[in-house]
Amino acid sequence: MEKLLSGQTALITGATSGMGEAIARLFAAEGANVIIGGRSAGKGEKLAAEITAAGGAARYYGPMDVTSEDSVLEAVDKTLAEFGKLDILATFAGKTFDGEALDAKTAYDKTMESNMTGTYNTVFAVVPHMKARGSGKIIICSSNGAFNPTTPAYTYHMAKAACESLTVNLAMELAPLGIRVNCIKPGPIRTSFWDELASGDELEDLLDGIARHEVPMGRIGTAEDIAGPALFLASELSAYITGLCLYVGGGIGYVYSHPQSFLLGRTPTGEH
């Protein structure tokens, strides 16, 4: 059976770790030429080598910083120069700065740049090419917490809410042009994202509490749990879907959520 993404070229931001890395590996396994977007040269080159050794096709053109429009455009230009097209964009670069020793204004600026402005820069570096070709698939990463928070994370959730607004506005404009735009809203996924908030036993206790009290399926998700839905949205299996903001969180968001139950006994951070 033909692979779902055979012959297609996919740019994935945030691909040097976590959900982006899992998506890069799966897309390559399904036949895509994968462009690894990320700032860590060591991780990017290592992932490209591993995908190639497994029989896939991957490129890492060097550090890519989504907060820099020039950096993003350079990666897109190199992709088009080598492959002549860009069929799929998955924007999974982003992080929270809540756990870092930053003043509130700096943390705000960095969070917005990484999650909101970075997504905007990447999308609009790719959209003109997709418009010219009359086809393309864009997958934007938001968060369950954008509209269904279990604890306040003001700046991060604001930035992710903006990504959902971008999704539906783009979907409306681009649908007649043959371009589909959808959004994944991850619930709690075990990635390095959580390292900014806690570590060691404290982190394990936090994740265990979330799994038991917040997630109907009773477990924390994995990066691979996000890669599968991303593949669906990138493939022709979802050919009649655009503008969708899809919860992927073991039932969080669309089954139920107990507000802040896992935080009982903990002191909230980021007071305003």
Query: What proportion of the residues is helical, as a percent range?
Result: 40-55%
CATH architecture heading: 3-Layer(aba) Sandwich
Structural class by secondary-structure content = alpha/beta
- Strands, count: 7
Q: If you compute it from the alpha carbons, what radius of gyration comes out, rounded to the nearest whole angstrom? A: 18 Å
Profile the largest sheet: 7 strands, parallel
| Strands in their spatial order, largest beta sheet | 3-2-1-4-5-6-7
**First-to-last CA distance:** 55 Å
Low-confidence parts, pLDDT < 50 over ≥5 residues?
A: 262-272
Order of helical and strand elements: EHEHEHEHEHEHHE
CATH superfamily: NAD(P)-binding Rossmann-like Domain
Structural domain tally = 1
Tally of DSSP helical segments? 7
Mean pLDDT: 90
